[in-house]
Specification:
Order of helices and strands: HEHEEHEHEEEHE
Shape: globular
Number of helices: 5
Helix content: 10-25%
CATH superfamily: YbaK/aminoacyl-tRNA synthetase-associated domain
Length: 168
C-alpha cells in the first residue's frame, strides 16, 4: 500500500470528508505546494520533525513562518539542544518521505505541536504521504486527528504570496 493510500485509510476512521489531491508536480516545499494547490504559502501546513534528545517532536505550522527555537524550548521545558531530524530519521520515525510527511499515522509515537499561526486560515493543506500530495483540513480537524496541542511557537511571517485557490 502506498503512503498516500495509508493516509486515505487512516482518515476514513474520522467523521470528516477530507479529499487527498495528487499532483504531477512536486509539493515537497511550502512554496511548491502552494503553487500546485493554488493557495498562498502560509496556507500550506508544513510538518517539521525535531529530535529533543531521543524524543521526536513534530511542529506543524504555516509555510510562511519559522519556528522560534526559544519558544519551542520554553514550551517543551528543554534547556539543552535539539535538532531537526535528517531524512533518514524522518522516514524511520514517520514512515513518510521528506516533503510528504503527514502529521498523523506515524510509525512511532511523536508529540504533535500545532502552531496557532495556522488559525489565520479557514483551511490549510497538509502533505498526505508523498511529495506530490496535499489534503485540505481545518485546524480543529488537525487537532482532532493528530491529538496535538495548539501552541504559539513561531516568529512572524517571513514570506507572503497570494495565489488563487482552485480547490474551493
Amino acid at each position: 500500500m502506498s503512503e498516500v493510500e495509508r493516509v486515505r485509510r487512516y482518515l476514513a476512521q474520522f467523521p470528516y470528508r477530507i479529499e487527498i489531491y495528487e499532483f504531477d508536480e512536486s509539493t515537497r516545499t511550502a512554496e511548491l505546494a502552494a503553487r500546485a494547490v493554488g493557495v498562498e504559502v502560509g496556507q500550506i501546513a508544513k510538518s517539521i520533525l525535531f529530535l529533543v534528545g531521543e524524543e521526536p517532536v513534530m511542529v506543524v505550522t504555516c509555510g510562511d513562518v519559522k519556528v522560534s527555537q526559544s519558544r519551542l524550548k520554553q514550551h517543551l521545558g528543554v534547556k539543552g539542544k535539539f535538532k531537526m531530524a535528517d531524512a533518514e530519521a524522518i522516514a524511520a520515525i514517520t514512515g513518510f518521505p521528506p516533503g510528504g510527511v503527514c502529521p498523523f499515522d506515524l510509525r512511532q509515537k511523536v508529540r504533535i505541536l500545532i502552531d496557532k499561526s495556522l488559525k489565520r486560515f479557514p483551511v490549510v493543506y497538509i502533505a498526505a504521504g508523498s511529495p506530490q500530495s496535499a489534503a485540505p483540513v481545518t485546524v480543529e480537524q488537525l487537532l482532532d486527528i493528530t491529538g496535538g496541542e495548539l501552541c504559539d511557537l513561531c516568529q512572524s511571517q517571513s514570506v507572503k504570496t497570494t495565489v488563487t485557490n482552485e480547490f474551493s
